[in-house]
Amino acid sequence: xxxxxxxxxQHFLRDPAIARAIVDVVAPTASDRVVEIGxxxxxxxxxxxxxxxxxxxxxxxxxxxxxxxxxxxxxxVVEADxxxxxxxxxxxxxxxxxxxxxxxxxxxxxxxxxxxxxxRAAVDEMALMLQREVAERLAASPGNxxxxxxxxxxxxxxxxxxxxxxPPGAFRPPPKVESAVVHLVVQRAPRxxxxxxxxxxxxxxxxxxxRRKTLGNALARTLGLPVERVRAAAEAAxxxxxxxxxxxDLAEFARLAARLA
Length: 261
What we know:
CATH architecture of the largest domain: 3-Layer(aba) Sandwich
Low-confidence stretches: 1-7
Largest sheet: 7 strands, mixed
Order of helices and strands: HEHEHEHEEHEHHEEEHHHH
Protein backbone atom coordinates (compact mmCIF):
# COMPACT_ATOMS: atom_id res chain seq x y z
CA UNK A 1 0.00 0.00 0.00
CA UNK A 2 1.31 3.47 -0.90
CA UNK A 3 1.84 5.66 2.20
CA UNK A 4 0.08 9.02 2.47
CA UNK A 5 3.41 10.83 2.37
CA UNK A 6 4.51 8.99 -0.76
CA UNK A 7 1.16 9.76 -2.37
CA UNK A 8 1.79 13.45 -1.67
CA UNK A 9 5.14 13.29 -3.45
CA GLN A 10 7.41 13.65 -0.42
CA HIS A 11 11.20 13.55 -0.74
CA PHE A 12 13.04 12.99 2.53
CA LEU A 13 15.91 15.27 3.47
CA ARG A 14 19.06 13.25 4.15
CA ASP A 15 21.84 15.86 4.40
CA PRO A 16 22.55 16.81 8.06
CA ALA A 17 24.48 19.96 7.09
CA ILE A 18 21.50 21.28 5.16
CA ALA A 19 19.18 20.32 8.02
CA ARG A 20 21.28 22.44 10.39
CA ALA A 21 21.29 25.32 7.89
CA ILE A 22 17.50 25.23 7.64
CA VAL A 23 17.10 25.32 11.42
CA ASP A 24 19.65 28.15 11.59
CA VAL A 25 17.30 30.30 9.48
CA VAL A 26 14.94 30.72 12.46
CA ALA A 27 17.57 29.98 15.16
CA PRO A 28 15.26 28.43 17.79
CA THR A 29 16.07 28.78 21.49
CA ALA A 30 14.88 27.07 24.64
CA SER A 31 12.14 29.70 24.94
CA ASP A 32 10.62 28.91 21.55
CA ARG A 33 7.82 26.58 20.51
CA VAL A 34 8.40 24.99 17.09
CA VAL A 35 5.93 23.28 14.80
CA GLU A 36 7.60 20.96 12.32
CA ILE A 37 5.50 20.11 9.29
CA GLY A 38 6.23 16.68 7.87
CA UNK A 39 9.08 15.30 9.99
CA UNK A 40 9.32 12.26 7.74
CA UNK A 41 12.45 10.38 8.80
CA UNK A 42 13.50 13.02 11.34
CA UNK A 43 16.31 14.89 9.56
CA UNK A 44 15.12 18.23 10.96
CA UNK A 45 13.43 16.86 14.06
CA UNK A 46 16.59 15.99 15.97
CA UNK A 47 18.14 19.41 15.40
CA UNK A 48 14.91 21.15 16.42
CA UNK A 49 14.52 19.00 19.55
CA UNK A 50 18.09 19.79 20.56
CA UNK A 51 17.64 23.55 20.30
CA UNK A 52 13.96 24.44 20.89
CA UNK A 53 12.00 24.38 24.12
CA UNK A 54 9.04 22.45 22.71
CA UNK A 55 8.57 20.73 19.34
CA UNK A 56 5.26 19.67 17.82
CA UNK A 57 5.67 17.47 14.74
CA UNK A 58 2.70 17.21 12.36
CA UNK A 59 2.83 13.99 10.33
CA UNK A 60 0.03 12.62 8.16
CA UNK A 61 1.54 9.16 7.73
CA UNK A 62 0.84 6.80 10.68
CA UNK A 63 3.93 4.66 10.17
CA UNK A 64 6.28 7.63 9.97
CA UNK A 65 4.61 9.24 12.99
CA UNK A 66 5.24 6.10 15.03
CA UNK A 67 8.91 6.11 14.04
CA UNK A 68 9.34 9.76 15.04
CA UNK A 69 7.70 9.07 18.44
CA UNK A 70 10.04 6.17 19.06
CA UNK A 71 13.15 8.04 17.99
CA UNK A 72 12.37 11.40 19.65
CA UNK A 73 10.33 10.76 22.82
CA UNK A 74 10.53 14.43 23.82
CA UNK A 75 8.75 15.56 20.66
CA UNK A 76 4.96 15.87 20.59
CA VAL A 77 3.83 14.05 17.45
CA VAL A 78 0.41 14.90 16.03
CA GLU A 79 -1.06 12.75 13.27
CA ALA A 80 -2.86 15.29 11.12
CA ASP A 81 -3.06 16.87 7.68
CA UNK A 82 -0.93 20.02 7.65
CA UNK A 83 -3.29 21.61 5.13
CA UNK A 84 -6.13 21.73 7.65
CA UNK A 85 -4.46 21.66 11.08
CA UNK A 86 -5.48 24.65 13.22
CA UNK A 87 -2.30 26.73 13.52
CA UNK A 88 -4.31 29.57 15.06
CA UNK A 89 -4.39 27.64 18.37
CA UNK A 90 -0.62 27.98 18.83
CA UNK A 91 0.61 30.09 21.73
CA UNK A 92 4.14 31.20 22.50
CA UNK A 93 5.73 30.52 25.86
CA UNK A 94 6.53 33.64 27.94
CA UNK A 95 9.42 35.44 26.26
CA UNK A 96 9.47 33.01 23.36
CA UNK A 97 8.29 32.71 19.77
CA UNK A 98 6.18 30.35 17.71
CA UNK A 99 8.22 29.05 14.77
CA UNK A 100 7.21 26.81 11.87
CA UNK A 101 9.80 24.69 10.07
CA UNK A 102 9.24 22.02 7.48
CA UNK A 103 10.14 20.16 4.33
CA UNK A 104 6.72 20.47 2.72
CA UNK A 105 5.35 17.84 0.32
CA UNK A 106 5.59 19.71 -2.97
CA UNK A 107 2.18 18.63 -4.26
CA UNK A 108 0.37 20.30 -1.34
CA UNK A 109 2.77 23.09 -0.40
CA UNK A 110 0.60 25.98 -1.59
CA UNK A 111 -2.47 25.16 0.55
CA UNK A 112 -0.19 24.63 3.55
CA UNK A 113 1.42 28.04 3.01
CA UNK A 114 -2.00 29.68 2.73
CA UNK A 115 -3.14 28.00 5.96
CA UNK A 116 -0.06 29.36 7.72
CA UNK A 117 -0.57 32.86 6.33
CA UNK A 118 -4.21 32.78 7.42
CA UNK A 119 -3.07 31.89 10.97
CA ARG A 120 -0.33 34.54 10.97
CA ALA A 121 -1.46 36.07 14.27
CA ALA A 122 -0.24 32.92 16.03
CA VAL A 123 3.12 32.56 14.23
CA ASP A 124 6.33 34.62 14.38
CA GLU A 125 8.67 33.11 11.78
CA MET A 126 8.82 30.25 9.29
CA ALA A 127 11.50 28.36 7.39
CA LEU A 128 9.86 26.25 4.70
CA MET A 129 11.47 23.94 2.15
CA LEU A 130 9.60 24.25 -1.14
CA GLN A 131 10.00 23.51 -4.80
CA ARG A 132 12.23 26.34 -6.01
CA GLU A 133 9.58 27.61 -8.41
CA VAL A 134 7.09 28.03 -5.53
CA ALA A 135 9.69 29.66 -3.28
CA GLU A 136 10.53 32.15 -6.02
CA ARG A 137 6.84 32.86 -6.47
CA LEU A 138 6.45 33.70 -2.78
CA ALA A 139 9.37 36.13 -2.92
CA ALA A 140 8.69 37.60 -6.39
CA SER A 141 8.42 41.36 -6.88
CA PRO A 142 5.84 43.12 -9.08
CA GLY A 143 6.83 42.89 -12.72
CA ASN A 144 8.36 39.43 -12.31
CA UNK A 145 6.71 36.73 -14.42
CA UNK A 146 6.35 34.50 -11.32
CA UNK A 147 4.58 37.23 -9.31
CA UNK A 148 0.99 36.19 -8.62
CA UNK A 149 -1.77 35.96 -6.04
CA UNK A 150 0.32 33.70 -3.79
CA UNK A 151 3.06 36.36 -3.80
CA UNK A 152 0.58 39.11 -2.89
CA UNK A 153 -1.15 37.23 -0.06
CA UNK A 154 2.12 36.05 1.47
CA UNK A 155 3.88 39.41 1.21
CA UNK A 156 0.88 41.22 2.68
CA UNK A 157 1.48 39.30 5.92
CA UNK A 158 5.22 38.55 5.87
CA UNK A 159 8.66 39.73 4.95
CA UNK A 160 9.81 37.06 2.51
CA UNK A 161 13.26 36.03 1.33
CA UNK A 162 14.86 32.95 -0.17
CA UNK A 163 17.32 31.80 2.49
CA UNK A 164 19.07 28.95 0.67
CA UNK A 165 18.84 26.71 -2.36
CA UNK A 166 18.97 22.95 -1.96
CA PRO A 167 20.16 20.52 -4.68
CA PRO A 168 18.24 17.33 -5.54
CA GLY A 169 21.04 15.17 -4.11
CA ALA A 170 20.18 16.32 -0.57
CA PHE A 171 17.01 14.19 -0.71
CA ARG A 172 16.01 10.56 -0.86
CA PRO A 173 14.78 9.91 -3.49
CA PRO A 174 16.20 12.93 -5.38
CA PRO A 175 13.39 15.09 -6.82
CA LYS A 176 13.38 16.06 -10.48
CA VAL A 177 13.21 19.74 -9.50
CA GLU A 178 15.41 22.06 -7.46
CA SER A 179 14.35 23.15 -3.99
CA ALA A 180 14.73 26.26 -1.88
CA VAL A 181 14.11 27.32 1.70
CA VAL A 182 12.03 30.44 2.12
CA HIS A 183 12.22 32.54 5.30
CA LEU A 184 9.00 34.30 6.30
CA VAL A 185 8.91 36.84 9.13
CA VAL A 186 5.32 37.59 10.09
CA GLN A 187 4.35 41.25 10.40
CA ARG A 188 1.99 42.04 13.25
CA ALA A 189 -0.09 44.30 11.00
CA PRO A 190 -0.65 44.02 7.22
CA ARG A 191 2.09 45.80 5.29
CA UNK A 192 -0.59 47.99 3.67
CA UNK A 193 -3.98 49.02 5.03
CA UNK A 194 -6.79 46.70 3.90
CA UNK A 195 -10.39 47.82 4.45
CA UNK A 196 -11.97 44.44 3.68
CA UNK A 197 -9.60 41.45 3.57
CA UNK A 198 -12.12 39.14 1.94
CA UNK A 199 -12.77 41.65 -0.84
CA UNK A 200 -9.03 42.15 -1.26
CA UNK A 201 -8.56 38.40 -1.78
CA UNK A 202 -11.43 38.24 -4.29
CA UNK A 203 -10.05 41.14 -6.34
CA UNK A 204 -6.46 39.83 -6.34
CA UNK A 205 -7.52 36.34 -7.43
CA UNK A 206 -9.75 37.81 -10.13
CA UNK A 207 -6.95 40.05 -11.41
CA UNK A 208 -4.61 37.07 -11.87
CA UNK A 209 -7.28 34.72 -13.26
CA UNK A 210 -6.49 35.89 -16.83
CA ARG A 211 -2.85 36.95 -16.73
CA ARG A 212 -2.65 37.86 -20.42
CA LYS A 213 -5.59 40.22 -20.26
CA THR A 214 -5.43 43.81 -19.15
CA LEU A 215 -6.47 44.53 -15.58
CA GLY A 216 -9.78 46.07 -16.66
CA ASN A 217 -10.76 43.14 -18.86
CA ALA A 218 -9.59 40.45 -16.44
CA LEU A 219 -11.53 41.89 -13.50
CA ALA A 220 -14.66 42.56 -15.55
CA ARG A 221 -14.69 39.01 -16.90
CA THR A 222 -13.97 37.25 -13.59
CA LEU A 223 -16.11 39.43 -11.32
CA GLY A 224 -18.97 39.75 -13.79
CA LEU A 225 -18.85 43.56 -13.74
CA PRO A 226 -19.24 46.04 -16.60
CA VAL A 227 -15.82 46.83 -17.98
CA GLU A 228 -16.60 50.55 -17.77
CA ARG A 229 -17.13 50.27 -14.02
CA VAL A 230 -13.86 48.38 -13.52
CA ARG A 231 -11.91 50.90 -15.59
CA ALA A 232 -13.44 53.81 -13.66
CA ALA A 233 -12.57 52.14 -10.33
CA ALA A 234 -8.97 51.58 -11.45
CA GLU A 235 -8.59 55.15 -12.62
CA ALA A 236 -10.09 56.43 -9.34
CA ALA A 237 -7.38 54.37 -7.57
CA UNK A 238 -4.75 56.05 -9.78
CA UNK A 239 -4.10 52.82 -11.71
CA UNK A 240 -4.07 52.47 -15.49
CA UNK A 241 -6.70 49.78 -16.32
CA UNK A 242 -4.55 48.84 -19.32
CA UNK A 243 -1.85 47.42 -17.05
CA UNK A 244 -1.63 43.74 -16.19
CA UNK A 245 -2.06 42.28 -12.70
CA UNK A 246 1.59 41.27 -12.31
CA UNK A 247 2.66 44.94 -12.39
CA UNK A 248 0.61 46.03 -9.35
CA ASP A 249 2.17 46.27 -5.89
CA LEU A 250 0.41 45.66 -2.58
CA ALA A 251 -0.69 49.26 -2.09
CA GLU A 252 -2.19 49.42 -5.59
CA PHE A 253 -4.15 46.20 -5.06
CA ALA A 254 -5.42 47.60 -1.75
CA ARG A 255 -6.61 50.83 -3.41
CA LEU A 256 -8.22 48.93 -6.26
CA ALA A 257 -10.07 46.54 -3.93
CA ALA A 258 -11.39 49.50 -1.93
CA ARG A 259 -12.72 51.15 -5.10
CA LEU A 260 -14.42 47.94 -6.21
CA ALA A 261 -16.15 47.36 -2.87
